[in-house]
């Protein structure tokens, strides 16, 4: 697995493509055959990409997108159900480092969402400072369908956008929201046709890149300090997920999702 980043016109890393357009860095999730999951191998690579962008004064904004009509399908269920419970905490910590690298950086990040932003993919999108969605994008809050709580700071990010009470309702009654409804509910900032989503995100990032970087960095960190505490939310998510991954209901939820059948939860 390659985490070291060497500068070139386009860098191909594990599950990612990275290139610069002026002062805008474009990060593309690049496993379309799996709908761009956040698997174990991509987590340190994606974290390193965002840490590098934040440390580079020539990078003034970042666009995060997914390849071939999919944003991010979240965790890879085909791998998750094979993992031993004692592996859950390191896996979760690796995912949460991505959330910290995006939400905790001083560099503004624009998400360009086409296709599904599912579970951890939802958290990935909502941790960004601006979300541009296509009319056909789908935002899926369905963690609980497979017996899990939230991941990748999704609880923190969703609550910041829609409020705690509405975020709770969206998690305990899972929803799949198309781009226009997600806009009406406050999850996204702009909705455009699918063919325009990346272009609009790039335009917005270029606008951000013309503004004073220090002012943007301090404003981003100032707003991040308001309301719910990111670090506490992340620690809570890790503890909840680690406990739930030991339950029979989690095993049943993953099996049902893979077998495309209704789950039979027993409370154990």
From TrEMBL:
Keyword Lyase listed: yes
Enzyme class: lyase
Keyword annotations of the record: Lyase
UniProt GO molecular function: enoyl-CoA hydratase activity
Enzyme Commission numbers on file: 4.2.1.17
Similarity annotation: Belongs to the enoyl-CoA hydratase/isomerase family.
PANTHER family: EG:BACN32G11.4 PROTEIN, ENOYL-COA HYDRATASE
Protein name: Enoyl CoA hydratase
Native source species: Gordonia polyisoprenivorans (strain DSM 44266 / VH2)
Species classification: Bacteria, Bacillati, Actinomycetota, Actinomycetes, Mycobacteriales
